[in-house]
Amino acid sequence: MSSNLCPEILEYLEQVESNTPRACPEQHALAAMIRACFDREEIRVDTDQLKKYLGLARYFPFELFAWQKFLIALWDCSYKPDGRPRWKTLLCMVGRGAGKDGFIAFDSACSISPYNPVSHYNVDICANNEEQAVTPVKDLAEVLETPTYEAKLKKHYYHTKELIQGRKNKGVMKGRTNNPKGRDGMRSGKVIFNEVHQFENYDNIKVFVTGQGKVAQPRVGIFTSNGEVSDGPLDDYLARGRRILFDGEPDNGFLPFICCLETREQVHDPDNWHMANPSLQYLPQLLQETEDEYRDWREHPEQNGDFLTKRMGLRAGQKEISVTDYEKVKATNRPIPDMRGWSCTVGLDYAELNDWAAVNLHFRRGNERYDINRSWVCSQSRTLPRVKAPWQEWGRRDLITVVDDVSISPVMLAEYIREMGRRYNIKMMAMDHFRWTLVSEAMQAIGFDARDKDRVKLIRPSDIMMVEPVIQECFDRQYFAWGDNPPLRWAVNNTKRVRSSKKAGVDTGNYIYAKIEGKSRKTDPFMALVASMVIEPVLGTGKPIKAPAMGAILL
């Protein structure tokens, strides 16, 4: 029963519930979830083990905060009746400066200490780079070398520059990067992924997690601040965590500890900063540093995008002037209605047909905009190895079409448009002025000829300048509905807004779109949408028609 909650759990729950300091909705939902779990289930907190673990804190040069003791109690010391951990996997997303590395170091010291009854409980810390992987190891090594405690701790721990071992437990703490060498035969008791926001796919996560099971009571820790890799593992973990917290999805041993602001506007109230960083109330120096960064961000937001992302847990887009906030990109993930028979425009975009290509069908009904977006990827593209996106998985899920050839045939694009023309009334096509020649023959075969200005619009930068404010309005007011389309959301996040050239020394205030990085960040899906919106006026207010699909397309 929740009335029997140990003080370490109860202290943090009451802090959140009293909103002192201010806590985000995710933390309030977590507090309610933990109380409900203890009310409904037989959960045993090993208070003796917890007391011994927390006793190790006296050797560390920092205080354990309420939220950290709360997590140690739940993740490391709470058990099901059969002795398995009640919460095997911990997701911990907190703002920069909260003390993730120090917490990982302390937690690892507990796990390989003589107070952990599971022997040979190895702790493997995985990160994208060596510094992030070994920093917690170095932090613990510094504790072990503290002159005041060195002699005493030496009886319990052995360490080198690369690893730390518990003498009695025999468990080894070690940092590991993405180099796959030496992973076979690993016997991890606990796997910790540091700064998961940098992980672009699950390759390394799967290798480490599937290696568990050889040691009792396996656990997984996912520690991170927010980051700029969209539609990667972190977004999946956050989505799962929020479904558990807000939608009633069973947690199945997944503990979502998520700290962040809700909206960009909240950042202007310093009391809200505690929502993203539960350590802020204890660290006046960190508070001052956050205040300094806030002032810098207000003056130069395009140069200090990390402030929102890392400090406040809000996806801020790339450091260049992004198309929109990532929260608004995520808001496009709304269901698309049955639009069979509706009028639409079609946009086509590609830079090279031996790379990527995309087609976008754009619909309007009042203010609401609906888009059906499809991409083709040439598997033999020379730049494909540089693409930082799970395109193979997208292909397996039929979110994109992977073309195993030297290029993407224009006929494939035309056939897709022809098929869509059987379902919808395609009124007009648009694409880049300089890309028409390569696809003209295939498009003419299905009824689109650039000589017919009522059927085809070859767009120029000035056309994009005119539609850019409309696109911004659609993002800001959440008029877009794209269904669950990770490739399109990824493409938006790869795009930046660039001011158009000045005229007579006057900044026109107009924008066009450009790639953030030329080879690894593809924008074709979004630019196909932009093209389709250039000709949106042909849809009028977008009332759906009753007639069958337009017969002008050759079937």
Describe it for me?
The protein starts with 6 loop residues before the first helix and ends in a 21-residue tail after the last helix. The protein has 555 residues and is α/β, with parallel strands linked by helices. A hairpin with a 3-residue loop joins β5 and β6. The protein has 19 helices and 19 strands. Mean pLDDT is 89; it is low at 502-507 and 544-555. Helices cover 35% and strands 18% of the residues. The longest helix has 16 residues, at 25-40. The strands form four sheets. Strands 5-6-7-4-8-9-3-10 form an eight-stranded mixed sheet, with helices on both faces. Strands 11, 12, 13, 14, 15, 16 and 17 form a seven-stranded mixed sheet that branches. α15 (410-423) crosses α16 and α17 (461-476) packs across α19.
Gyration radius, rounded: 27 Å
Mean pLDDT: 89
How much strand content do the residues show?
15-25%
Number of helices: 19
Runs in which pLDDT lies below 50 for 5 or more consecutive residues are 502-507, 544-555
Note the gap between the termini.
67 Å
**Based on DSSP secondary structure assignment, what is the total number of beta strands?**
19
Biggest sheet strand order reads: 5-6-7-4-8-9-3-10
The helicity comes to: 25-40%
Largest β sheet strand count, sense and barrel closure: 8 strands, mixed
Shape by Cα distribution: elongated
